[in-house]
């Protein structure tokens, strides 16, 4: 890890601690993190940065648990099991914290392209792309009128509905590394289409990440396609 990467990790840890401090005293924050209250006070107020080992622990373990709890508190399910995660995907500052935690937890390699599906995946994709310094690409269910060449992936769902996604061919170059992200993974059908698009573009998949996994079906489906890490911030049964 070079000096810039260490500094970025330390600042990410401080951002996580500041988020936690919004609803906790320093003593309560100490109970959550296992760190002395006095040190936490100095970190949160910007007097000193945590060491890299502490920063890594905060981002990877404490950060993931805290963000998962926050995500659960913001998500609602209706009587038919549909998910309302607008309280998450509309909060860019929250998603900006998710990106480093996901990268540290699942050890995603830095990609050239972050690939997602329009529209709810775009804000998460933007956060992940910004964190990695990667390009953002998002597939749509319709073609752009001014674009001549597309990568197209189509699948007939169990319901009989045909789902098709289109990505401008110029969005991915052969040999690019691609991280597939989405706000929600349930059946895995959307992620399967995105992975197919990446593979059609002769790209190498570095991972699949979702904010929310509903059950294991979608995660297992993604793992059947790629050997790269597959993870979600939290899972609902």
TrEMBL record:
GO terms for molecular function: adenine phosphoribosyltransferase activity. Keywords: Glycosyltransferase, Transferase. Coiled coil: none annotated. Residues 93-201 form the Phosphoribosyltransferase domain. It comes from the Archaea. Its EC number is 2.4.2.7. Pfam families: Pribosyltran (PF00156). Gene3D superfamilies: 3.40.50.2020. NCBIfam families: PRK08558.1. This is Adenine phosphoribosyltransferase. It comes from Halorubrum californiense DSM 19288.
């Amino acid at each position: 890890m070079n000096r810039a990467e260490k500094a970025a990790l330390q600042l990410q840890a401080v951002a996580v601690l500041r988020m936690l401090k919004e609803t906790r005293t320093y003593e309560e924050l100490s109970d959550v993190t296992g760190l002395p209250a006095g040190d936490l006070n100095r970190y949160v107020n910007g007097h000193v940065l945590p060491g890299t080992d502490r920063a890594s622990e905060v981002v990877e373990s404490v950060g993931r648990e805290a963000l998962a709890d926050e995500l659960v508190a913001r998500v609602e399910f209706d009587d038919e099991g549909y998910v309302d995660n607008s309280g998450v995907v509309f909060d860019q500052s929250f998603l900006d914290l998710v990106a480093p935690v996901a990268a540290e937890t699942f050890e995603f390699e830095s990609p050239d392209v972050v690939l997602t599906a329009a529209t709810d995946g775009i804000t998460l994709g933007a956060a992940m792309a910004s964190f990695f310094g990667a390009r953002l690409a998002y597939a749509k269910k319709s073609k752009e009128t001014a674009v001549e060449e597309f990568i197209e992936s189509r699948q007939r769902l169990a319901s009989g509905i045909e789902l098709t996604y289109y990505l401008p061919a110029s969005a991915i170059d052969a040999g690019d590394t691609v991280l597939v992200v989405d706000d929600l993974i349930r059946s895995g059908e959307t992620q399967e289409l995105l992975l197919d698009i990446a593979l059609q573009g002769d790209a190498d998949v570095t991972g699949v990440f979702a904010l929310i996994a509903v059950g294991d079906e979608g995660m297992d489906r993604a793992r059947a396609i790629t050997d790269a890490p597959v993870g979600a911030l939290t899972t609902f049964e």
